[in-house]
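Hello forum,

I keep getting stuck at the same step: I have a sequence, I want structure tokens, and every attempt I make locally crashes halfway through. Rather than fight my setup again tonight, could one of you with a working pipeline run this one for me? It's a single chain of 88 residues.
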Amino acid sequence: MKDLGSLTVVVEQVDTPAKTKNRYRVTFVVAPESVGMRVQATDNNLFEAVIAAKAEALRQLNAIVNAMPRQWNLDAQKGGGIPPELLH
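Reply #2:
Ran it on my machine without issues. Output:
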């Protein structure tokens, strides 16, 4: 898994109709050069938005890893990386 790639984090302040409260959108892009998985969360609290985006990213990554055949999981742990057929 260490060869998966990078993580890009984008934090934006979103305009609200009332313009009385700040609203934040956090976007995680996991391995934009290979996987390109995007996860977004929006909240009035920046910390809560980051935690929500992290939780969703972990959920999606766990689903990817759990869908891999067992041998690929073992190879990845030994430093073999993610098989190219799983990357798009």
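The helical segments are 46-67, 70-77. If your local run keeps crashing, start a new thread with the error log.
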